[in-house]
User: Which sequence fits this backbone?
């Protein structure tokens, strides 16, 4: 039963990662794309850099998973405010998604802004390996909307190991969306991909907004 | 030479495409349909009601109890159990049955409904929970996929929501 | 007078009326005539005058249109006649059968739980991920055909895949039984009233179907519901829809009607484009992927092209851009309707078989494509037309 429940959570996390991967792409793409574009050409080099970036991003996810699980386990399961919290977060998520979608390419991840020295278009960064690691870790702990959804869910899980596994699967789902960045040829096509990702972000915002408002209305009128 | 080989391949491919087109109604559609049919797929339990757990024989009809259906994380339905009374033609005009849903020998819900004479008429029913594991329904018809008392063909389909706090959600 | 006739030519005929002699046209039409007879012979063997009339009407209709394609050398306008007829008659026949069977277009929940909802191909992209990960079909139908639901999931997916292997994205021009509604409304006005808007934003609008495809596929997989069917399908307004029983279903119905009126009626009339198909339909975006493997395409002979952009203006789904024309290609969402080929005055836009030289024997490529496409159109769309005609005959007072 526990194994079934674990595999169900893993599947859910993977699908959630795939579902919100476009938002990840749209959120972190403006950071990753210019960074990759200043790298020398070569599939091997890009693969290595992207691998380092994703590994560090996973590390960031694990840090966040531990933090949210510790917070979540301290909130009683039967707490009636949980539904209000879920509805409220979904509405905020929707608003954040719209801001992220409409604000590109002028906005960046908050994390990338702090690490401004890592991303300077037109100038090849020195220390490529450390750049990939730092960039990956910072985007990994960046509180972007899909991250918050996954965090709320992980906080509800019984064990820390389940929360960590949840985020590993979530990461796997989102990582699929970064594969097209492997080669310069793919990168050059990304204006349309990023535009589609922005549109998907807006659509997801509508969905989360509707879902959140429905929950709040149901809670208000039906208890 | 290369261009010639490419052209020949292209025309062969076009010919094959035409052949495929001609074969669609006679062969291909059936082949692909069989592949899908034997792929081990099933209809989502929120629509189908899940798998059968047990059948309870009554006088002239039977009650089919299904396994509880648990929604996946973001799925928007409540957890429920489906109960089917069949055949509808053999049911008494008024049904009020206590049903054991979890197989522990004790009844869990009482289902009550009147079978309309007109098979196409909308029907309503009541479900009274006999323990804390289920949610009572009053005068319900087709409220949602988790809460219903409906006639579907020659069956009466009842769906009883599980109490979420007990169901682990 | 000369400029008036040339502008008329720009929007309608390009080639002289007689592209090919009558004899040769009949010869080339023979295979389609024989195919039509083969497809509808079972209808003649069944009892019922109405079915006979329906079958005969379709045989004559499809054969005549193909003959005209051969005779005039044009594709688009004759295909459009079939396509519009299909799209307007299909809902008629479908709604008539719904009313006869249950007295309403709405689907009660009891039919959904019994698996009696006929499967629609437009939900195909949404069911892929849940089927792959959880072996679950998120549609209230039945896997195998039943007496009450012959349009089972296995049958419809089998049919869709088989037809897509041949047509690719040309499904949207020869198989879809909805797209002709927009094409019909788009043909009414003489000129577009939103031409500048389309010119300015068309390159963004044609990305929307991809965004909706991604959104629908992934959210459907996340919540295990066919999101497009439940929330976004405009054609629910002319087929069947979940019965309105609460606020949510009422909102859904409102969305269906608004999308239908906006994207399928009003905007096609104003823009002379297939706005639902080109700027919204996720299934169309999904079918575009199959253009990559399909052997037939439309190309541009750069030596003949004078960049007059008549092709761009005539394309119903904005599948051409200045850049793509410069490269001699259409965009991925080209549905091979032939509008650009027929509109081009310089014979620069041509049908092409991948792997062969561009603009060398384009008519051969066109013929090879049309035989496959029209055969399937006759089989699939033709049977729908025959059924609808038979239904109309049922309603006629003369027996």
Assistant:
């Amino acid at each position: 039963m526990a194994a079934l429940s674990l595999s169900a959570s893993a599947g859910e996390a993977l699908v959630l990662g795939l579902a919100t991967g476009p938002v990840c792409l749209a959120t972190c793409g403006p950071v990753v794309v210019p960074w990759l574009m200043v790298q020398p050409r070569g599939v091997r080099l890009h693969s290595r850099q992207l691998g380092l970036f994703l590994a560090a991003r996973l590390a960031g996810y694990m840090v966040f998973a531990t933090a949210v699980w510790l917070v979540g386990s301290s909130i009683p399961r039967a707490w009636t405010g949980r539904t209000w919290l879920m509805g409220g977060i979904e509405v905020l998520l929707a608003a954040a998604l719209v801001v992220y979608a409409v604000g590109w390419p002028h906005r960046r991840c908050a994390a990338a802004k702090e690490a401004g020295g890592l991303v300077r278009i037109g100038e090849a960064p020195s220390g490529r390996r450390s750049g990939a690691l730092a960039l990956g870790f910072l985007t990994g702990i960046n509180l972007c909307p899909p991250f918050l959804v996954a965090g709320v869910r992980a906080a509800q899980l019984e064990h820390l190991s389940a929360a960590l596994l949840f985020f590993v699967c979530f990461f796997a789902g989102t990582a699929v969306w970064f594969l097209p960045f492997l080669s310069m040829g793919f990168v050059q096509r990304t204006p349309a991909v990023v535009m589609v990702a922005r549109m998907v972000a807006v659509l997801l915002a509508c969905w989360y907004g509707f879902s959140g408002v429905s929950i709040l209305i149901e809670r208000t009128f039906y208890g | 030479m290369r261009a010639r080989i490419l052209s020949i391949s292209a025309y062969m491919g076009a010919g094959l495409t035409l052949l495929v087109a001609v074969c669609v109604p006679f062969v291909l559609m059936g082949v692909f349909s069989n592949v899908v049919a034997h792929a081990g797929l099933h209809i989502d339990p929120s629509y189908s009601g899940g798998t059968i757990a047990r059948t309870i024989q009554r006088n002239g009809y039977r009650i089919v109890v299904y396994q509880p259906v648990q929604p996946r994380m973001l799925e928007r339905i409540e957890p429920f159990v489906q109960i089917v009374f069949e055949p509808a033609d053999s049911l008494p005009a008024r049904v009020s049955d206590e049903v054991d849903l979890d197989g522990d020998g004790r009844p869990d819900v009482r289902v009550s409904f009147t079978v309309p004479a007109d098979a196409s008429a909308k029907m309503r029913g009541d479900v009274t929970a006999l323990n804390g594991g289920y949610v009572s329904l009053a005068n319900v018809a087709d409220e949602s996929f988790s809460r219903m008392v409906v006639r579907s063909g020659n069956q009466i389909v009842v769906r009883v929501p599980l109490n979420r706090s007990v169901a682990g959600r | 007078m000369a400029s008036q006739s040339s502008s008329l030519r720009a929007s309608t005929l390009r080639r002289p009326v007689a592209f090919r002699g009558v004899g040769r046209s009949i010869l080339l039409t023979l295979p389609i005539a024989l195919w039509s007879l083969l497809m509808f012979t079972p209808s003649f063997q069944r009892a019922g005058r109405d079915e006979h009339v329906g079958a005969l009407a379709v045989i004559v209709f499809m054969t005549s249109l193909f003959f005209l394609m051969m005779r005039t050398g044009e594709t688009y306008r004759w295909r459009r006649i079939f396509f519009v007829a299909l799209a307007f008659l299909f809902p008629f026949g479908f709604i008539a059968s719904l009313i006869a069977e249950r007295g309403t277009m709405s689907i009660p929940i009891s039919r959904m739980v019994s698996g009696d909802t006929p499967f629609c191909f437009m939900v195909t992209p949404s069911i892929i991920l849940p089927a792959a990960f959880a072996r679950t079909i998120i549609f209230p139908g039945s896997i195998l055909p039943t007496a009450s639901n012959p349009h089972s999931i296995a049958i419809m997916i089998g049919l869709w895949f088989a037809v897509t292997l041949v047509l690719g994205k040309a499904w949207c021009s020869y198989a879809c039984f909805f797209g002709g509604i927009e094409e019909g409304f788009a043909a009414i006005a003489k000129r577009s009233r939103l031409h500048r808007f389309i010119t300015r934003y068309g390159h963004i609008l044609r990305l929307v179907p991809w965004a909706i495809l991604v959104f629908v596929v992934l959210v459907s997989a996340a919540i295990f519901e066919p999101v497009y069917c439940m929330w976004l399908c405009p054609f629910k307004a002319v087929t069947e829809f979940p019965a309105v029983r609460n606020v949510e279903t009422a909102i859904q119905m409102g969305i269906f009607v608004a999308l239908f009126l906006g994207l399928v009626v009003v905007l096609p009339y104003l823009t002379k484009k297939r706005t639902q198909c080109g700027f919204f339909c996720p299934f169309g975006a999904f079918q575009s992927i199959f253009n990559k493997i399909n052997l037939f395409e439309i190309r541009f002979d750069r030596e003949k092209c004078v960049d007059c952009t008549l092709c761009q203006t005539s394309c119903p789904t904005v599948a051409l851009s200045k850049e793509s024309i410069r490269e001699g290609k259409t965009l991925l969402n080209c549905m091979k309707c032939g509008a650009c080929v027929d509109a081009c005055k310089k014979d620069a836009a041509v049908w092409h078989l991948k792997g062969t030289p561009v603009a060398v024997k384009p008519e051969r490529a066109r013929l090879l494509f049309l035989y496959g496409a029209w055969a399937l159109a006759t089989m699939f769309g033709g049977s729908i037309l025959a059924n609808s005609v038979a239904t109309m005959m049922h309603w006629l007072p003369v027996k």
User: Anything to note?
Assistant: Helices of chain B lie at 2-37, 45-48, 164-167. The longest strand of chain B covers residues 80-86. Chain B touches chain C through 54 residues (CB under 8 Å). Chain B has two domains: 1-41, 45-167.
